[in-house]
Design brief:
This protein is an alpha+beta fold. It is built from 6 helices and 10 strands; from the N terminus they run αβαβββββββααααββ. The chain has a 4-stranded antiparallel β-sheet. The two termini are 27 Å apart. The mean pLDDT is 95.
């Protein structure tokens, strides 16, 4: 699932290439992922020009010159390409946008879970999930973070990944944030001290400040990618075959890894209390 570092990298990639570009063709090859009628989607894009690409939570917002916005939530398996028309299409390529210089933006989605909308900029809150989405994880202040987290109960990992709390954090980076904060993923929010909440906020920013440049640099090499996770410290790092693999980079203990509800959670039982 693309998370903030991935989406920030994709956003930077497109902002270097498509701002001001004219759209000469738009095709919805698999209309299932559209949340705008196919004819309206294609008509809104053809002849238009791209403005800046923005991000909020797990949505990418492609501004258009006529004050429309194309929003894409890639969900679990959405992937972007920026290729010449002769390039082979990926399986389940759902949408292609051809620019005046001949290059194409393509969106593919193996599980067809993503969603694409075109709406007026002043009607963006009509998009499902936008109205009830909390502040973006990169923009929330520590004061607001503390205030909002008091309204949620349950396991702290589940709260971090709840878009109604703050938007943009998924399964992988919630593990990394909790590792930085030295908090176990299944601790109840009501058990956390004020100092631990502060550590959680600092862990969020430390994780993102480290990860965004790494992933952005990787994506700059080519948009046809899978999520770059080599830099992560604990997520999916458990179960090593050798003595040195699967170890906590902080204390050397074995990393625990379980998959409740088919969602992998990784943490250090020694470092994270």
């Amino acid at each position: 699932m693309p998370e903030i570092p991935d989406l920030e990298g994709i956003r930077a990639f497109f902002n270097q290439r498509i701002v001001g570009a004219e759209i000469v063709q738009a095709e919805a090859l698999i209309p299932y992922i559209l949340r705008t009628p196919r004819a309206d989607f294609e008509a809104a894009l053809i002849g238009n020009r791209f403005g800046e690409v923005l991000r909020r939570g797990k949505f990418l917002l492609f501004a258009l010159a006529d004050d429309n916005v194309m929003l894409i939530n890639p969900m679990l398996t959405g992937r972007f390409q920026y290729v010449e028309p002769s390039a082979k299409k990926l399986a389940k390529t759902c949408m292609t946008i051809t620019l005046a210089d001949g290059w194409q933006i393509r969106y593919s989605d193996r599980r067809l879970m993503g969603k694409i909308y075109v709406v007026r900029a002043d009607d963006i809150m009509s998009v499902p999930m936008f109205a009830d989405m909390g502040p973006d994880a990169m923009e929330v202040s520590e004061e607001e973070f503390r205030e909002r987290i008091r309204k949620h109960t349950g396991a702290i990992k589940n709260i971090l990944t709840n878009h109604k709390f703050i938007a943009g954090i998924g399964n992988a980076y919630s593990d990394e944030i909790l590792f930085e904060a030295r908090i176990a993923p299944f601790r109840k929010r009501t058990e956390l001290s004020a100092d631990e909440i502060g550590a959680l906020y600092r862990g969020l920013h430390k994780t993102m400040d480290r990860s965004i440049p790494i992933v952005t640099e990787k994506i700059a090499e080519g948009l046809d990618y899978t999520e770059w996770r080599e830099h992560l410290k604990v997520h999916r790092k458990g179960g090593g075959k050798s003595r040195d693999e699967g170890r906590c980079p902080r204390c050397g203990s074995a990393i625990t890894e379980i998959a409740p509800n088919q969602r992998i959670t990784s943490w250090c039982r020694t470092c994270q209390a």
